[in-house]
Structure formats: C-alpha cells, structure tokens
Design the sequence.
C-alpha cells in the first residue's frame, strides 16, 4: 500500500488572530477585508469549520513559514492560510508560468484513498466519468454529482491498481466530499482521508520538465499528460509525481510528506531559479486557470449547476451503467443554458456574479458571470458566464453589469488561452 | 516606502497636492499601490464632474481586486489624467507622478494627515 501518503503527522492547527485582515475599513485598501475580492474566497465562508470574516480554524500548510519568509501575502483560502502572491506580484507570477516556470504550494488540496475489491465499482457509481479503460498510473478527471445532477465536487482520480485509487479534491470541499463518499460506499472497500498527511507542490510552465529532470533518475518522470509515478525520489525526497496541473501549461504536481515539503520546495526553487522559476500564489493560480478557461468549483459549477451546463459533458458518460446523477441528467436532456467565454470589448473588468444582459438597455438579465478577471498574458479582460443556449453562439454581443455600468462583451471560443 | 513631505494624505491612502488654495492634484499613495499590487484598470470620472471630500470618485482594479478611491477635497474636476486609462501601471511605477484628477474651486477638504503622521499610521498598522 501507499506508505508515502500515509502515516504522517498532522500539521498543527494555528489561528490567524487578526494577522491577515489588518487593513479593514481603510478606503482604497478596504478590499483586504472583503471576501469577494479574491473570487475564489467565496468558498472560504462555506468551507468546513472556517468562520466568516474570522479566523479561528484556518490551518497552515507545512510551507507556511517558507511563504512568510519569501514575502508571501497571506490570505485565508479553503480553510488554509496561503500566499495570494509574493513580491513579484500576480502579473509577473502569471507570466513566469506562461513563459518559464512557477512553483505553487497546493497542500490545501484534499487527498482521499479508496481501495479494496469493490473500489472500482464504487468509483463508477460515485463519479460521472468512466474508469473502465484506465491503465495503472493514469490520472482521470471527473465531476461527482448529486442525484439532482448538481455537482458535489470535481476531482482527479489516480489509479494505482484495479483495487486502489487516490482521489484529489478541492480543499474547501474535502470534508463534504469525504462525508458524501462514505455515505454511498458499497461492498468491500476501504476509504481514508489522508489530506493532513500529504503536502502537494505544483511545478508549472514550459520549463517545468527541464527543471525537474536533473533532480530524478534518468527517464523516471511521467511522460504522458495525465499520468503519474507513485514513488519517485526528487532530490532525495520521496514523492508521487503526476504530469498534471491547473494552469493550462505543461507541468507536474508533486505529493510528499508534510515534514519534507519545505526541503522539496527549496530544492525545486534552487534548481529552477537559474531558468526563471519563481514561487507563485493563489492569485496567479486563479488568473492562469481562468485564462485557460478551466472551471472552478463554486464558480463554473456547484450544487445547482450540472457538469453538462458547465461544458463538461465529455466527462459525463451517459452510456455507462448507473451512476449518481445519471437519471436527472438524462431527464434534463440538452440543457437550456451553457457556460460561455466572454471577451470584454469595453474598458473595464467584470468579476464573478455580475448580471449579463442580451442588450445594452435590456431590463432583465439573461445570465450571470461565474468568474472574470484581467488576463495578464492575453492582456485583456475576460469572463465566463452561464447564459441561455440562444445567447451562446460565438460572436454574440452581451452586456455585463459592472457596478452599475453595462460593459459590452462578445462570446468567444473557450479556452481563452491554449498553449 | 516614500511619502513626500509636500503632500497631505487621507487615512484611506489617497494623497492630495495643493497647487494653490483652490486647486489640487489627487492620487493614491505608495503604500496603497504596493498593497493593491499590479493595477490593470482605472475607472475615472469626467472633467467638470463634482467631487466631495470623503466620497468615492474613482475605482482602481488590480488583477484580483477592485477598490474605491476617495476624494480628499470638495470641488470640480478640471482635468483627469488620461494617460492612466491606457497605462494604469503608472500608478504602481510612479504613484506621486501619476495624479488621477485635478480639482479646481476647492471649497472643503477631508481630515488630512501630514506625511509624518501618515507614515506613523502605516507603521502602527503593520
């Protein structure tokens, strides 16, 4: 079994004690207290144990001290204290990942183990994707749905063997996911949450391979996109390494023991610095995934949005045997709304949860934005929105209400950026 | 951080430079631009708009955040710094050169801090 991801000490619980929100009610800097600022922080209030606006339950990842020492601006996210950016700033970090390489601490992600004779059968029933033709050492993306077709979470499945899988889930959904999965397990299967015993780093960018290769034995890195190697020594540290990521670039995600995470972090930075590798925070992680039009739970999908509406129909295999959500999605048929990409043609930036109108003067909105930002690499503002199918054709002009101003946007092809 | 002595500051991190008793330039402080991070959009009012001390007259957007900017003075906008519309990064590069609005007919001002007091306030927050 998987020793690397097990039998580790849990990280200590720490409290914020006001360290992070010291800019409250300070005019131009008021945003620091506003949870909606970092759009992904919307999840924070909902996440397990965390208190809104407050601060009792956030955990530190094993790399917390390294982030502070490196000048990271720390914010609470998904129940963890993580850097939103370092000294270089979001734009420089974003550009480093697009042109060279960036290193992220993603230890907040949840890791769940599912194994036993009936593990496969359970996956097939719990998740919408089909895991039948999946080789050992492959990773596969899937939504996990409620019976309504709404989404519990989206996750990555790592297959060790027919009876042995690792599930990597969103930090803020980890406890909800674990509870949901436990409540639906059938037959001979064992399920464990090893998130607290697992650190995760993401090395992303066109030079990721060049940086990582000298740190491992020749020819041992996973070659195929969405594949992994369960045990690999990276600079002498035992890791699970997958060729995966959430940036739209080539790259790797490395899982290791929490007590070795700082050493791994430092060795990767040391090896990559001559090639332009810099540490990157949550801000760049969000702009990179948005520019690459990768959906984020709580934004492009949630309990009220089906994966088909999000445009993830490819990962919903309606022709496999029964799975949770199948009947509802079959009954729904072709959804009436879908996720579109919008490029703003007026000056301004649309964020999440802005109303979208079919005409500049229209009284009633037709949809809402789910995410939006200024794209550092593309150099313009984009948003994703859920709109009626009739308003979703490429080239359609739509108007987004941004704090009382209607900004014109055009439906464009997704992803906004493709390497 | 740099806080020029000839300017006055608001607690909300704007600066004001009085060209004479009734004319002022307004911008955001070095501390503000640093805390906001890379600015990518500025939404400015128009010339001839009225501004009121303590009320929002513009917003600035970084990659991840939007923030209001408050006016230190009451008066009429004579000019906006149009260069900021195409190059909002000027606010990061040169916060005291990159004024946002020029206000004339100034009749009132908000509570203002000297450079020394403003710097002290920031030090206390840190």
Sequence:
């Amino acid at each position: 079994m998987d020793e690397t991801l097990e039998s580790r000490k849990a990280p200590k619980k720490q409290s914020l004690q006001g360290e992070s929100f010291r800019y409250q009610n300070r005019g131009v800097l008021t945003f620091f207290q506003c949870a909606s600022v970092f759009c992904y922080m919307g999840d924070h209030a909902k996440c397990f144990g965390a208190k809104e606006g407050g601060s009792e339950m956030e955990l530190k990842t094993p790399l917390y001290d390294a982030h502070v020492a490196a000048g990271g601006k720390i914010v609470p996210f998904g129940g963890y204290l993580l850097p939103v950016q370092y000294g270089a700033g979001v734009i420089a970090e974003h550009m480093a990942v697009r042109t060279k390489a960036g290193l992220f601490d993603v230890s907040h992600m949840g890791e769940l183990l599912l194994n036993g004779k009936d593990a496969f059968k359970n996956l097939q029933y719990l998740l919408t994707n089909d895991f039948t033709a999946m080789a050992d050492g492959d990773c596969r993306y899937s939504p996990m749905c409620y019976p309504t077709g709404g989404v519990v979470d989206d996750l990555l499945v790592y297959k060790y063997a027919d009876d042995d899988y690792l599930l990597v889930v969103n930090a803020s959904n980890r406890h909800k996911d674990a509870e949901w999965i436990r409540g639906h397990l059938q037959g001979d299967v064992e399920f464990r949450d090893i998130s607290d015993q697992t650190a995760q780093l993401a090395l992303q960018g066109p030079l990721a391979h060049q940086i990582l290769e000298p740190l491992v034995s020749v020819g041992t890195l996973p070659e195929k996109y969405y594949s992994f190697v369960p045990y690999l020594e990276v600079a002498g540290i035992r890791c699970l390494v997958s060729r995966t990521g959430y940036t739209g670039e080539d790259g790797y995600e490395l899982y290791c023991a929490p007590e070795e995470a700082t050493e791994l972090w430092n060795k990767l930075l040391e090896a990559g610095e001559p090639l332009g590798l810099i540490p990157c925070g949550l801000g760049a992680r969000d702009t990179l995934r948005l520019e690459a039009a990768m959906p984020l739970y709580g934004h492009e999908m949630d309990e009220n949005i089906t994966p088909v509406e999000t445009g993830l129909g490819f990962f919903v295999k309606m022709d496999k045997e029964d799975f949770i959500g199948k009947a509802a999605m079959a009954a729904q048929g072709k959804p009436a709304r879908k996720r579109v990409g919008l490029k703003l043609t007026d000056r301004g930036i649309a964020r999440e949860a802005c109303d979208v109108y079919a005409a500049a003067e229209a009284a009633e909105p037709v949809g809402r934005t789910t995410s939006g930002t200024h794209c550092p690499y593309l150099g313009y503002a984009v948003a994703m929105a859920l709109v009626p199918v009739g308003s979703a054709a490429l080239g359609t002009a739509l108007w987004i209400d941004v704090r009382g101003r209607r900004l014109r946007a055009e439906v464009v092809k997704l992803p906004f950026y493709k390497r | 951080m740099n806080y020029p002595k000839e300017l006055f500051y608001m607690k909300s991190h704007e600066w004001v430079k009085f060209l004479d008793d009734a004319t002022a330039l307004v911008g955001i402080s070095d501390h503000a631009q640093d805390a906001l991070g890379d600015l990518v959009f500025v939404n400015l009012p128009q010339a001839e708009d009225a501004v009121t001390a303590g009320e929002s007259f513009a917003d600035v957007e970084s990659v991840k955040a939007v923030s209001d900017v408050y006016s230190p003075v009451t008066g009429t906008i004579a000019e906006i710094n149009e260069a900021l519309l195409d190059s909002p990064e000027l606010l990061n590069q040169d916060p005291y050169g990159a004024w946002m609005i020029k206000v004339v007919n100034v009749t009132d001002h908000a509570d203002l801090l000297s450079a020394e007091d403003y710097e002290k306030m920031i030090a206390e927050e840190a």
DSSP finds nine helices and 20 strands in chain A. The two ends of chain A are 37 Å apart (CA to CA). Chain A has three domains: 27-107+198-291, 110-197, 336-412. The interface with chain B takes residues 22-23, 26-32, 34, 37-39, 84-85, 89-92, 94, 283, 286-287, 347-349, 351, 373-374, 376, 381, 403, 405 of chain A (CB under 8 Å).
